[in-house]
Design a protein that fits this description.
Elements (H helix, E strand, L loop, with lengths): L16 E3 L10 E6 L9 H14 L8 E5 L3 H13 L2 E7 L4 H9 L3 E5 L11 H11 L3 E3 L6 H9 L1 H8 L6 E5 L4 H13 L4 E7 L4 H7 L31 E5 L1 H15 L5 H16 L7 E6 L13 H7 L9 H4 L7
Parallel strand pairs: 2-10, 3-4, 3-6, 4-5, 7-8, 7-10, 8-9
Antiparallel strand pairs: 1-2
Bound molecules: pyridoxal-5'-phosphate (PLP).
Protein backbone atom coordinates (compact mmCIF):
# COMPACT_ATOMS: atom_id res chain seq x y z
CA UNK A 1 0.00 0.00 0.00
CA UNK A 2 1.20 3.48 -0.78
CA UNK A 3 0.67 6.70 1.23
CA UNK A 4 -1.29 4.84 3.91
CA UNK A 5 -0.61 5.45 7.63
CA UNK A 6 -1.45 3.53 10.81
CA UNK A 7 -3.03 6.63 12.36
CA UNK A 8 -3.13 10.42 11.97
CA UNK A 9 0.23 10.87 13.73
CA UNK A 10 2.02 9.32 10.76
CA UNK A 11 1.28 12.50 8.81
CA UNK A 12 3.29 14.78 11.10
CA UNK A 13 6.26 16.54 9.49
CA UNK A 14 7.63 16.68 5.92
CA UNK A 15 5.59 19.83 5.26
CA UNK A 16 5.83 21.20 1.71
CA UNK A 17 7.32 24.51 0.57
CA UNK A 18 5.77 26.90 -1.89
CA UNK A 19 7.39 29.81 -3.73
CA UNK A 20 5.88 33.24 -3.04
CA UNK A 21 5.33 34.96 -6.37
CA UNK A 22 3.33 38.11 -5.70
CA UNK A 23 3.48 39.45 -2.13
CA UNK A 24 7.28 39.66 -2.13
CA UNK A 25 7.85 40.40 -5.80
CA UNK A 26 9.82 43.59 -5.03
CA UNK A 27 12.46 41.46 -3.27
CA UNK A 28 14.83 39.91 -5.83
CA UNK A 29 15.55 36.74 -3.78
CA UNK A 30 13.77 33.39 -4.11
CA UNK A 31 11.27 33.29 -1.24
CA UNK A 32 9.92 29.92 -0.09
CA UNK A 33 7.17 29.44 2.49
CA UNK A 34 7.23 26.24 4.55
CA UNK A 35 3.56 25.43 5.06
CA UNK A 36 3.21 23.98 8.53
CA UNK A 37 -0.57 23.96 8.09
CA UNK A 38 -0.01 20.72 6.14
CA UNK A 39 0.60 18.92 9.43
CA UNK A 40 -2.53 16.98 10.47
CA UNK A 41 -3.18 19.36 13.39
CA UNK A 42 -2.71 22.25 10.92
CA UNK A 43 0.31 23.76 12.66
CA UNK A 44 4.00 23.43 13.45
CA UNK A 45 3.08 22.44 17.01
CA UNK A 46 2.30 18.85 15.97
CA UNK A 47 6.04 18.30 15.81
CA UNK A 48 6.71 19.28 19.42
CA UNK A 49 3.63 17.56 20.84
CA UNK A 50 4.63 14.22 19.30
CA UNK A 51 8.32 14.57 20.17
CA UNK A 52 7.82 15.63 23.80
CA UNK A 53 5.14 13.00 24.51
CA UNK A 54 7.15 10.18 22.90
CA UNK A 55 10.26 11.29 24.78
CA UNK A 56 8.29 11.18 28.06
CA UNK A 57 7.11 7.66 27.14
CA UNK A 58 10.71 6.56 26.46
CA UNK A 59 11.74 7.98 29.86
CA UNK A 60 8.89 6.07 31.58
CA UNK A 61 7.19 9.28 32.75
CA UNK A 62 3.82 8.50 31.14
CA UNK A 63 1.78 5.65 32.56
CA UNK A 64 -1.44 4.41 30.91
CA UNK A 65 -4.31 6.84 31.47
CA UNK A 66 -1.94 9.70 32.32
CA UNK A 67 -2.99 13.36 31.99
CA UNK A 68 -1.03 15.77 29.81
CA UNK A 69 -1.21 19.44 30.86
CA UNK A 70 -0.12 22.52 28.95
CA UNK A 71 -0.42 26.27 28.50
CA UNK A 72 -1.25 27.13 24.93
CA UNK A 73 -2.62 29.82 22.65
CA UNK A 74 -4.44 27.07 20.84
CA UNK A 75 -2.13 25.36 18.38
CA UNK A 76 -0.03 23.39 20.87
CA UNK A 77 -3.22 22.41 22.64
CA UNK A 78 -4.78 21.05 19.49
CA UNK A 79 -1.64 19.04 18.75
CA UNK A 80 -1.41 17.64 22.28
CA UNK A 81 -5.11 16.77 22.26
CA UNK A 82 -4.63 14.96 18.93
CA UNK A 83 -1.60 12.98 20.15
CA UNK A 84 -3.39 12.23 23.46
CA UNK A 85 -6.38 10.66 21.69
CA UNK A 86 -4.22 8.30 19.64
CA UNK A 87 -2.04 7.38 22.62
CA UNK A 88 -4.85 7.11 25.21
CA UNK A 89 -4.03 10.07 27.50
CA UNK A 90 -6.26 12.78 29.01
CA UNK A 91 -5.52 16.38 28.06
CA UNK A 92 -5.97 19.57 30.16
CA UNK A 93 -5.15 22.96 28.64
CA UNK A 94 -4.96 26.50 30.05
CA UNK A 95 -5.39 29.18 27.40
CA UNK A 96 -5.36 32.96 27.29
CA UNK A 97 -8.64 34.85 27.05
CA UNK A 98 -7.26 36.43 23.83
CA UNK A 99 -7.97 33.06 22.21
CA UNK A 100 -11.02 33.18 19.96
CA UNK A 101 -14.04 30.95 20.63
CA UNK A 102 -13.53 28.86 17.50
CA UNK A 103 -9.99 27.90 18.58
CA UNK A 104 -11.37 26.76 21.94
CA UNK A 105 -14.10 24.83 20.14
CA UNK A 106 -11.38 22.97 18.20
CA UNK A 107 -9.73 21.95 21.48
CA UNK A 108 -12.99 20.74 22.97
CA UNK A 109 -13.82 18.84 19.79
CA UNK A 110 -10.69 16.80 20.46
CA UNK A 111 -11.76 16.06 24.02
CA UNK A 112 -9.53 18.53 25.89
CA UNK A 113 -10.57 20.14 29.19
CA UNK A 114 -9.96 23.91 28.76
CA UNK A 115 -9.24 26.61 31.39
CA UNK A 116 -9.52 30.20 30.08
CA UNK A 117 -7.20 32.66 31.89
CA UNK A 118 -6.68 36.45 31.66
CA UNK A 119 -3.99 37.41 29.08
CA UNK A 120 -3.04 40.78 30.50
CA UNK A 121 -1.72 39.76 33.92
CA UNK A 122 1.97 39.20 34.74
CA UNK A 123 3.29 35.67 34.13
CA UNK A 124 3.77 35.18 37.91
CA UNK A 125 0.13 36.10 38.71
CA UNK A 126 -1.74 33.00 40.04
CA UNK A 127 -4.43 33.62 37.36
CA UNK A 128 -1.94 33.56 34.44
CA UNK A 129 -2.16 30.53 32.17
CA UNK A 130 1.37 29.55 33.21
CA UNK A 131 0.51 29.51 36.91
CA UNK A 132 -2.85 27.77 36.37
CA UNK A 133 -1.16 24.97 34.38
CA UNK A 134 1.55 24.61 37.03
CA UNK A 135 -1.04 24.33 39.79
CA UNK A 136 -3.11 21.77 37.86
CA UNK A 137 0.03 19.69 37.22
CA UNK A 138 0.79 19.67 40.96
CA UNK A 139 -2.79 18.74 41.87
CA UNK A 140 -3.36 16.02 39.21
CA UNK A 141 -1.82 12.62 39.97
CA UNK A 142 -0.11 10.75 37.09
CA UNK A 143 0.26 13.93 35.02
CA UNK A 144 3.02 15.66 33.08
CA UNK A 145 3.34 19.36 32.29
CA UNK A 146 4.69 19.92 28.77
CA UNK A 147 5.86 23.49 29.61
CA UNK A 148 6.76 24.34 26.00
CA UNK A 149 8.40 27.68 26.92
CA UNK A 150 10.94 26.01 29.20
CA UNK A 151 11.24 22.55 27.64
CA UNK A 152 14.41 21.96 25.65
CA UNK A 153 12.68 19.09 23.83
CA UNK A 154 10.71 21.83 22.04
CA UNK A 155 14.00 22.94 20.42
CA UNK A 156 15.06 19.33 19.84
CA UNK A 157 11.83 18.53 17.92
CA UNK A 158 12.67 21.22 15.35
CA UNK A 159 16.40 20.39 15.40
CA UNK A 160 15.49 16.82 14.42
CA UNK A 161 12.71 17.55 11.91
CA UNK A 162 12.12 21.14 10.67
CA UNK A 163 15.80 22.06 10.28
CA UNK A 164 16.80 18.91 8.33
CA UNK A 165 13.68 19.23 6.14
CA UNK A 166 14.62 22.83 5.20
CA UNK A 167 18.18 21.73 4.39
CA UNK A 168 16.96 18.85 2.23
CA UNK A 169 14.17 20.77 0.51
CA UNK A 170 16.52 23.62 -0.50
CA UNK A 171 19.38 21.22 -1.32
CA UNK A 172 21.53 23.12 1.18
CA UNK A 173 21.06 26.42 -0.68
CA UNK A 174 19.05 28.27 1.99
CA UNK A 175 20.68 31.64 2.84
CA UNK A 176 18.11 33.17 5.22
CA UNK A 177 15.55 31.76 7.64
CA UNK A 178 12.68 33.83 9.10
CA UNK A 179 10.19 32.72 11.74
CA UNK A 180 7.94 34.33 14.30
CA UNK A 181 9.07 33.56 17.83
CA UNK A 182 6.67 32.59 20.59
CA UNK A 183 8.37 29.90 22.62
CA UNK A 184 11.24 30.28 20.14
CA UNK A 185 11.40 26.52 19.57
CA UNK A 186 10.73 26.56 15.82
CA UNK A 187 13.39 29.11 15.01
CA UNK A 188 15.96 27.97 17.58
CA UNK A 189 15.88 24.27 16.69
CA UNK A 190 15.81 24.86 12.93
CA UNK A 191 18.56 27.50 13.16
CA UNK A 192 20.80 25.27 15.28
CA UNK A 193 20.63 22.49 12.69
CA UNK A 194 21.07 24.82 9.70
CA UNK A 195 23.98 26.79 11.21
CA UNK A 196 25.81 23.54 11.95
CA UNK A 197 25.52 22.81 8.21
CA UNK A 198 26.38 26.36 7.13
CA UNK A 199 27.24 29.02 9.74
CA UNK A 200 26.70 31.79 7.15
CA UNK A 201 22.92 31.25 7.07
CA UNK A 202 21.23 34.36 8.47
CA UNK A 203 18.50 33.72 11.03
CA UNK A 204 15.91 36.41 11.66
CA UNK A 205 13.32 36.27 14.42
CA UNK A 206 10.04 38.14 14.06
CA UNK A 207 8.81 39.62 17.33
CA UNK A 208 5.53 41.37 18.16
CA UNK A 209 5.17 45.04 18.98
CA UNK A 210 4.32 44.71 22.69
CA UNK A 211 6.89 41.97 23.40
CA UNK A 212 10.30 42.07 25.10
CA UNK A 213 12.25 39.62 22.90
CA UNK A 214 13.83 42.02 20.36
CA UNK A 215 15.17 44.41 23.02
CA UNK A 216 16.41 41.50 25.15
CA UNK A 217 18.34 40.12 22.16
CA UNK A 218 19.98 43.50 21.59
CA UNK A 219 20.71 44.57 25.16
CA UNK A 220 20.40 41.51 27.38
CA UNK A 221 17.85 43.49 29.41
CA UNK A 222 14.10 43.18 29.87
CA UNK A 223 12.58 46.58 29.14
CA UNK A 224 9.18 46.60 30.82
CA UNK A 225 8.18 49.66 28.76
CA UNK A 226 8.12 47.35 25.69
CA UNK A 227 5.20 45.43 27.17
CA UNK A 228 1.68 46.31 26.06
CA UNK A 229 -1.34 44.26 24.96
CA UNK A 230 -1.44 43.18 21.32
CA UNK A 231 -3.66 41.04 19.12
CA UNK A 232 -1.35 38.60 17.32
CA UNK A 233 -1.56 35.22 19.05
CA UNK A 234 1.36 32.82 19.37
CA UNK A 235 4.29 35.22 18.98
CA UNK A 236 6.11 37.63 21.26
CA UNK A 237 6.41 37.29 25.03
CA UNK A 238 6.46 39.15 28.34
CA UNK A 239 9.04 36.68 29.73
CA UNK A 240 12.22 35.08 28.38
CA UNK A 241 11.53 31.51 27.22
CA UNK A 242 14.21 28.86 27.71
CA UNK A 243 13.23 27.39 24.32
CA UNK A 244 14.61 30.51 22.63
CA UNK A 245 18.31 30.22 21.80
CA UNK A 246 19.19 33.90 21.41
CA UNK A 247 22.71 33.10 20.23
CA UNK A 248 21.32 31.27 17.17
CA UNK A 249 19.44 34.38 16.03
CA UNK A 250 21.25 37.13 14.13
CA UNK A 251 18.58 39.78 14.32
CA UNK A 252 15.01 40.43 15.36
CA UNK A 253 12.45 42.57 13.56
CA UNK A 254 9.34 43.74 15.32
CA UNK A 255 5.98 43.92 13.56
CA UNK A 256 2.72 45.49 14.69
CA UNK A 257 -0.82 44.12 14.71
CA UNK A 258 -2.03 46.33 11.90
CA UNK A 259 0.66 45.67 9.27
CA UNK A 260 0.68 41.94 10.08
CA UNK A 261 -3.11 41.86 9.61
CA UNK A 262 -2.98 43.54 6.19
CA UNK A 263 -0.22 41.20 5.11
CA UNK A 264 -2.19 38.13 6.23
CA UNK A 265 -5.12 39.23 4.05
CA UNK A 266 -2.82 40.11 1.15
CA UNK A 267 -1.19 36.65 1.19
CA UNK A 268 -4.64 35.03 0.98
CA UNK A 269 -5.70 37.30 -1.89
CA UNK A 270 -2.49 37.20 -3.93
CA UNK A 271 -0.96 33.78 -3.22
CA UNK A 272 -4.19 31.92 -2.34
CA UNK A 273 -2.51 30.81 0.90
CA UNK A 274 -4.86 31.29 3.82
CA UNK A 275 -2.44 31.42 6.72
CA UNK A 276 -2.85 32.40 10.35
CA UNK A 277 -2.07 35.88 11.71
CA UNK A 278 1.62 35.03 12.23
CA UNK A 279 1.87 34.08 8.55
CA UNK A 280 1.21 37.74 7.77
CA UNK A 281 3.62 38.72 10.54
CA UNK A 282 6.53 36.72 9.14
CA UNK A 283 6.08 38.16 5.64
CA UNK A 284 5.74 41.67 7.12
CA UNK A 285 8.96 40.98 9.04
CA UNK A 286 10.72 40.04 5.80
CA UNK A 287 9.47 43.19 4.05
CA UNK A 288 10.72 45.40 6.91
CA UNK A 289 14.07 43.58 7.03
CA UNK A 290 14.49 43.85 3.25
CA UNK A 291 13.99 47.63 3.42
CA UNK A 292 17.16 47.85 5.54
CA UNK A 293 19.11 44.85 4.18
CA UNK A 294 18.76 44.49 0.41
CA UNK A 295 18.63 40.94 -0.98
CA UNK A 296 20.03 39.77 -4.28
CA UNK A 297 18.80 37.16 -6.75
CA UNK A 298 21.09 34.41 -5.46
CA UNK A 299 19.54 34.58 -1.98
CA UNK A 300 17.18 31.79 -0.98
CA UNK A 301 14.91 32.83 1.87
CA UNK A 302 12.78 30.36 3.83
CA UNK A 303 9.81 31.64 5.84
CA UNK A 304 7.97 29.42 8.30
CA UNK A 305 4.19 29.77 7.86
CA UNK A 306 3.13 28.31 11.25
CA UNK A 307 -0.59 27.55 10.90
CA UNK A 308 -3.81 27.79 8.89
CA UNK A 309 -6.19 30.72 8.56
CA UNK A 310 -9.26 28.66 9.40
CA UNK A 311 -8.55 29.40 13.10
CA UNK A 312 -8.82 33.18 12.49
CA UNK A 313 -12.14 33.47 10.67
CA UNK A 314 -13.61 35.74 13.36
CA UNK A 315 -10.38 37.67 13.76
CA UNK A 316 -8.04 38.73 10.96
CA UNK A 317 -10.31 37.30 8.24
CA UNK A 318 -13.36 39.14 9.59
CA UNK A 319 -13.91 42.54 7.95
CA UNK A 320 -15.88 43.60 11.02
CA UNK A 321 -13.00 42.69 13.32
CA UNK A 322 -10.56 44.58 11.08
CA UNK A 323 -12.77 47.67 11.19
CA UNK A 324 -13.24 47.36 14.99
CA UNK A 325 -9.45 47.48 15.36
CA UNK A 326 -9.29 50.57 13.15
CA UNK A 327 -7.42 48.60 10.49
CA UNK A 328 -9.05 50.43 7.61
CA UNK A 329 -6.06 52.30 6.27
CA UNK A 330 -5.16 49.48 3.95
CA UNK A 331 -2.77 50.64 1.29
CA UNK A 332 -2.95 47.36 -0.58
CA UNK A 333 -6.68 46.91 -0.94
CA UNK A 334 -9.62 49.18 -1.13
CA UNK A 335 -11.86 47.73 1.61
CA UNK A 336 -15.07 48.61 -0.15
CA UNK A 337 -13.88 46.88 -3.31
CA UNK A 338 -12.15 43.82 -1.92
CA UNK A 339 -14.01 43.06 1.28
CA UNK A 340 -17.41 43.49 -0.31
CA UNK A 341 -20.24 41.04 0.28
CA UNK A 342 -23.37 41.36 -1.77
CA UNK A 343 -26.68 40.00 -0.50
CA UNK A 344 -29.10 39.16 -3.27
CA UNK A 345 -32.66 39.41 -1.97
C1 LIG B 1 0.31 30.76 15.29
C2 LIG B 1 1.68 30.65 15.82
N1 LIG B 1 2.68 31.21 15.15
C3 LIG B 1 3.95 31.17 15.60
C4 LIG B 1 4.28 30.54 16.78
C5 LIG B 1 5.71 30.57 17.26
O1 LIG B 1 6.34 29.33 17.28
P1 LIG B 1 7.39 28.99 18.43
O2 LIG B 1 6.61 28.83 19.71
O3 LIG B 1 8.03 27.72 17.99
O4 LIG B 1 8.34 30.13 18.53
C6 LIG B 1 3.26 29.94 17.52
C7 LIG B 1 3.56 29.34 18.82
O5 LIG B 1 2.79 29.28 19.74
C8 LIG B 1 1.94 29.98 17.04
O6 LIG B 1 0.91 29.41 17.72
Amino acid sequence: MNNVFDNILGLIGESPMVRLNEVTKDIPATILAKLESFNPGHSTKDRIALHIIEQAERMGLLKPGATIIETTSGNTGYSIAMVSIIKGYKCILSVSDKTKAEKIAYLKALGAVVYICPANVPAEDPRSYYEVAKRLAEETPNSIYINQYFNELNIEAHYQTTGPEIWKQTEGKVTHLFACTGTGGTLSGSAKFLKEKNPDIKVIGVDADGSILKTFHETGEIDKSDIHPYQIEGMGKNLIPKALLFDQIDEFVRVNDELAAYKTREIALKEAIMGGYTTGAVVQGLVQYAAENPFNDTDLVVLIFPDHGSRYITKVYSDEWMKEQGFTNNLVHNYDEVFKTEHIK
